[in-house]
Specification:
The strands form three sheets. The protein has an eight-stranded parallel β-barrel with strand order 8-9-10-11-12-13-14-15. Strands 4-1-6-5 form a four-stranded mixed sheet, covered by helices on one side. It has helices at 47-59, 121-127, 138-141, 143-156, 170-184, 197-202, 212-217, 234-242, 266-274, 292-297; strands spanning 4-12, 19-23, 34-35, 38-40, 62-75, 80-92, 102-106, 132-135, 160-163, 190-194, 207-210, 226-231, 247-250, 281-284, 302-305. The N and C termini lie far apart (62 Å). It is of the alpha/beta class and 313 residues long. Bound molecules: 8-OXO-2'-deoxyguanosine-5'-triphosphate. It catalyses: 8-oxo-GTP + H2O = 8-oxo-GMP + diphosphate + H(+); 8-oxo-dGTP + H2O = 8-oxo-dGMP + diphosphate + H(+).
């Protein structure tokens, strides 16, 4: 039977958005490959405590705060590894590497070093996902007004848009989504189209976002670069994970105008539901920019919002 090993690894991000990778030293397993700093969880230790210890031993830094992010499993020749990835939110000290051949600060969109450890491919893809997702409601406020709000938000820092227009005809959705893709491109923002992979492809969007009902009946992953889904329960989140989806959106955290009367999770309920999942999960429901820290403390990748995303015009 393959040995099972728990490993804790940390994403240490600089203010310019670059994250730290280390190159495995000669004489170790997969020498020369690049990894996130971290190491094995010892018996009786929590993954978070293991990471704090490893970052002190490996890099000489004192970590003040880590936030759970993703948990992925990978079967290597030597062991079945369960990797607990954390966001290293606060740390102190000077980096002094004691174990790697080299360290490098890398960008998620244009990584300069390689090869990465085989388990880390999806992690790098997850790091390309922006933290804030703006969700459209053009059918409610009018296409022209929505496009102008998108334009304003893109000029600020919006990098991820979900076109969600369940009441639009296919023709109107195609035209609107095509326009969103056109305005988003120069800003390097990703666009996902809710509910229709064919339209997503036709307009050159980056991906498709599946409503929960479509997720439940999905047999094969749509052929889009990015595939995400809306989830409300642990079973739906596990379904999204089992289908190899790139992200999920989970809500409602707080009451919303879109779904009045819907039961809410609060941050405690949200944190319970997302624990141990392999893909990033956005928090949704009654949230605004100011909620980002609470969301990430609860284990969210970021925040998704309809009303909270758009600067009123
Ligand atoms: N630290 C870290 N380990 C990773 C990443 N991705 C990945 O697959 N791993 C795997 C490789 C190893 O099997 C394990 C890390 O264990 P480790 O670095 O403590 O130990 P090791 O196998 O090199 O050897 P040792 O401690 O027994 O000397 O997790 C990553 O990004 N960071």
């Amino acid at each position: 039977m393959t040995k099972r090993v728990d490993v804790a690894a940390g994403v240490i991000t600089r203010t310019d958005g670059r994250f730290l990778l280390g190159q495995r030293a000669p004489g170790t397993f997969y020498a020369g490959y690049w990894e996130f700093p971290g190491g094995k969880v010892e018996p009786g230790e929590s993954p978070a405590d293991a990471l704090i210890r490893e970052l002190d031993e490996e890099l000489g830094i004192r970590v003040r705060k880590v936030r759970p992010w993703l948990t992925r499993e990978h079967v290597y020749e030597h062991a079945h590894v369960r990797l607990h990835f954390f966001d290293v939110a606060e740390w102190e000290g000077e980096l002094q590497d004691h174990v790697h051949s080299a360290l490098s600060w890398e960008r998620s969109d244009a990584q300069g070093v390689g090869p990465m450890l085989p388990a880390n491919g999806p992690i790098l893809k997850s790091l390309r996902l922006p933290r804030w997702m703006g969700i459209t409601h053009a059918a409610e406020i009018g296409v022209a007004r929505q496009l102008s709000q998108i334009d304003d938000a893109l000029k600020q820092d919006l990098k991820l848009i979900q076109v969600r227009e369940p009441s639009m005809s296919a023709a109107d959705l195609t035209a609107f989504a095509g326009e969103v893709v056109r305005v988003a491109r120069p800003h390097g923002a990703l666009v996902m189209v809710n509910g229709d992979a064919d339209i997503a492809c036709e307009v050159g969007a980056d991906g498709v976002h599946l409503p929960a009902a479509q997720l439940r009946t999905l047999s094969v992953r749509p052929e889009c670069d990015w595939v995400g889904a809306s989830c409300h329960t642990r079973a739906e989140l596990e379904c999204a994970a089992a289908r190899g989806l790139d992200y999920a959106v989970l809500g409602a955290v707080f009451p919303t105008a879109t779904h009045p009367g819907q039961a809410t999770l609060g941050w405690g309920g949200f944190g319970e539901l997302v624990r141990g999942l392999p893909m990033p999960v956005f928090a949704l429901g009654g949230l605004a920019r100011a909620d980002m820290d609470d969301a990430r403390d609860a284990g969210a990748h970021g925040v998704a919002a309809i009303r909270g995303s758009w600067i009123q015009s």
